[in-house]
Amino acid sequence: MRMPYRVVGGTLVAALLAQLAGCGTLFWPERRGQIEGRVDPVIAVLDAIGLLFYIIPGVIAFGVDIATGAIYLPGGTHAQVDPATLRPAVQPDGTVNRARLQAILQQQLGRHLPLDDPRLIEHRGSPEQLAAYGLVPAA
């Protein structure tokens, strides 16, 4: 009589652990912050497995992966811009003029980057990084 309970319990635990590990945010944290791209089928299938077992964990997994951008495949292209060309976008108080930055990036990279997208994750620089470029940190 205890054997069926152990099998059911073991299957349930395995399903929940597979769902926990099925989140793309846990597998590829470096993908967070992507705004758009092609959907990674592996992550989509792993998130969909959660829908098969329980609706709520599957919906949460899809929501987290889409909100963080971890469900999207990396673009495969990298672009580098010389910091000296970005200097006109930085105002004397250390703030960034987004419109000017977007125009510089579009000119240098040949791509339109949506800097006003609400899903964009912005990282602040340290005072040491600003000092290296001759800028005074704003309080």
From TrEMBL:
The keyword Transmembrane helix applies. Keywords: Membrane, Transmembrane, Transmembrane helix. It comes from Pseudomonas typographi. This is Polyribonucleotide nucleotidyltransferase. The chain crosses the membrane at residues 42-64.
